[in-house]
Amino acid sequence: SVDCSFSRGVCDWKQDADDDFDWNPADRDRGDGYYMAVPAFVGHKNDMGRLKLLLSDLKPKSSYCLIFSYRLAGERVGKLRVFLADKKPALVWEQNKGKDERWRTGKIEIFQGTETTNSVTFESERGKGKTGEIGVDNVILISGLCPED
Asked: Residue 52 to residues 9, 30, 102, 119, 140: CA-CA distances in angstroms?
């Protein structure tokens, strides 16, 4: 497994230069490291912020599981989407509201065919709300299928 977490991960993260705002580090409640977040007051409704994980070493014709923690805290905070890309990005996951402020786990199967996935993009779309945030943390890539809960 490859740890792509932000405080201690070994992965190559890039802010998208063509979006409307950047994701920023935010301190964890327990004080052990940080996660990446978009506060609700950043930007305007429907603005986008993209954080891209560059993948260079995935083997063709094998499967991987991307596991990550996320939260959508606050009223009408917006949407969190995940795109996988080889030549062009494909939407593979979307969440648009949290029931509460708790962290949840997202899992995405990445099946490598002849085209090899070379990036994963976390996209935040700004909602109407003025409080809360969209956060992502503990991004891990493991080979094989996603484990059952």
From this structure: 14, 26, 24, 7, 14
